[in-house]
Design goal:
Layout lengths: L9 H6 L4 E2 L3 H13 L6 E4 L11 H18 L8 E3 L7 E4 L20 E4 L14 H11 L1
Antiparallel strand pairs: 1-3, 2-5, 3-4, 4-5
Length: 148
């Protein structure tokens, strides 16, 4: 009996797929430029620990989120490198994982239990992947204030 370990949900398959880090801040800047240019194309903004969105965000919400998450990352990840934002394709992203600077653990996946990202930006409708993981309450308050 040959059973596949691939999850049936398209978002979960993509989420567990291959990603490349925006290792340097200029790479993150370039990624944001690409997403901003496609802000009206239908992106799901998802804060893990919150209910997954059922509808895509308006272009203005996408632009606002990028501005705010960029500000948060630069103020709280005070390194000369980024390395906490990953995309399935840096040139034409469809799924972006953004890790919380205050909950990094071992992001690169060399741990048996790497942390989940704090947020995703996706062309696919997300599912609740954080149901069993503790999400920091401070970040939930940040998200709710942003889109409250």
């Amino acid at each position: 009996m040959n059973q596949s370990c691939d999850p049936p949900d398209p978002f979960l398959r993509a989420f567990r797929g291959s990603f490349t880090a925006a290792l340097r801040w200029h790479q993150l800047d370039a990624l944001w430029i690409r997403v901003r240019a496609r802000a009206a194309e239908g992106w799901y903004l998802y804060a893990l620990g919150e209910a997954p969105p059922r509808e895509v965000s308006a272009a203005a919400q996408v632009l606002h989120f990028i501005d705010e998450i960029d500000r948060l990352l630069r103020s709280e990840h005070q390194e000369d490198y980024c390395g906490i934002v990953y995309a399935d394709d840096l040139d034409s992203p469809a799924l972006i994982k953004i890790y919380d600077p205050n909950n990094l653990g071992v992001v690169c996946g060399s741990s048996d239990n790497p942390p989940l990202p704090g947020w995703t930006i996706s062309k696919l409708a997300p599912v609740d992947i954080a149901a069993t993981q503790l999400v920091m309450k401070g970040r939930q308050r940040w998200w709710r204030r942003l889109f409250g």
